[in-house]
Amino acid sequence: MRHRSLLVLTTVITTGALTLTACGSRDEAKTGGDKADGAKTVVVIGVDAPLTGSLSALGQGIKNSVDLAAKTANKNNEVPGIEFKVEALDDQAVPASGQANATKLVGNKDVVGVVGPLNSGVAQQMQGVFASANLAQVSPANTNPALSQGDNWGKGEFKRPFKTYFRTAATDVVQGKFAAQYLFKDAGKKKVFVVDDKQTYGAGLAAIFSDEFKKLGGEVVGTDHVTVKETDFSSTADKVKASGADSVYFGGQYPEGGLLADQIKKAGANIPLMGGDGIQDPAFITASGEANEGDLSTSIGYPVEKLPTAKTFIADYQAGGYKDPYAAYGGYSYDAGWSVVQAVKAVVAANGGKLPSDARAKVVEALGKVSFEGVTGKVAFDEYGDTTNKQLTVYKVEGGKWIDVKSDTFNQ
Known about the structure:
- By secondary structure, the protein is α/β, with parallel strands linked by helices.
- The protein has helices at residues 2-15, 25-31, 56-75, 95-107, 120-132, 146-149, 172-186, 200-215, 234-243, 254-266, 282-286, 311-319, 330-350, 359-367; strands at 41-49, 82-90, 111-115, 136-139, 165-167, 191-196, 219-225, 247-251, 273-275, 296-300, 372-374, 377-379, 391-398, 401-409.
- The protein is built from 14 helices and 14 strands.
- Helix 4 runs parallel beside helix 5 (120-132).
């Protein structure tokens, strides 16, 4: 390390650069391109996700998929003179941890874009931190509409809170309505009991579902709330049984959703539970001691395994030797990471093959213009930073596995 510092210092003096540094990393980021010694400018893509805890199955898939995008960019020399690296931080699905991670990522001057987080509630605490530093954030999983369209989106007043925020996931406006239409029209259910986990994602999704279900002519026969990380939902299960509901809609994640579905069936209500993408994970099924046959979920996009555009991603992920599966958001995470790569590519090309000193701001601007065929289909963002891809899928538990039963493009 000492010898490396001296080498960089000598190079800086020889070229007449105005600033000196012991490690040289920030000056290299400013000049960009290939160095005299053949080294490349290091550009870091940050990742924030729950890497430990109950949602780690999803978080590890996010981290690994972004890592694969960075490695693919380096292997293909996607941006000449640039070497991409990944710095992944664990938020444990806790908003305060996400905010602390955002501050840490902002402090690393080599970070030009961040992928994550998983949870909408965590994103709410991170957005302002990134915006203050002109650092782009691309979530592969956030679905709360307010993150991109403002708190008054439900009143038809759309205002983008932060220009630095983007996402490759469709919003709950789309997902909640899609779920209600399937449950009412396709599954033929007319009396639903609605439960949520009181979190930003779960409560918001449940509210959108309920409004649409009632507009279609269905009846919400009861509502209740559960607490994250609790395991005894027997009182809610009893309420469901007593209500005479022919179905349950749950706004929340798979750890609670799987146990709730189990306890509802044990209470004697042999009816399907439906939820959003937060429950569409194998762990939802294994959490239940009762058979989950017939339970339903929606998920953003089409099944990755059935997309022609995802074949290379799946093969490369398997070849990469990652310990954890890419899970529900792998394809969207790869596309989020690749969108940062493409933004950097545009910025470097516009600056004579070098990374400019205001790279972060330039990357934010370039992200709004990216357009490419990704793992999940066409990747592009609208004026709010939302994905233009409104494809969704309904999954059903059959034979102990999630099986896709309906995919469609939702038009509001």
